[in-house]
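thought: fold this chain, then report.
action: predict
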Amino acid sequence: MSSENYVNKNHSVGLNQFHLEWCTKKRFECMRREDIRKIVEDYIRQAAKEYGIFIHTLAVGIDHVHAFVSIPFDMSPSEAEGKLKGRSAYLIFRAIPNFRLRYPKGHFWSPGKFIRSISNVTSGAIKNYIENQQFEKLHDTILQAKFEPAQLNLVGFF
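observation:
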């Protein structure tokens, strides 16, 4: 990797890139329709732009989201994911008020999250993994797996 790919800001130089994943509350499959997935994707991208988070790759499934992001150095990965989830949920509820019937307390996203630094895998592997999501197969593995991290295995993408 050449030095021109590094971020140089506020006396810091480097990469602050992460693979993030989060799902809807109770894994409701509320993003089945393509138009709703597009709305959700647009609002996640808008939230990212508002907070200075750069999205390299984003995939929205029927009940969860994968994102490969670069975050500002002064923001923790957990904070970045919280900001993306919080702001996008607010925008989604404004755009699709009927979601309030499914989520009356205003919690669109589950409190859980998956965060992985990509320091030990190539960014190409992360992009390939996210761009080639087979959400139906992943959903089946979630139903069969005892622990959700079982679906997050990147070994086949190296």
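thought: worth noting. The CA atoms of residues 46 and 88 lie 8 Å apart.
final: tokens above.
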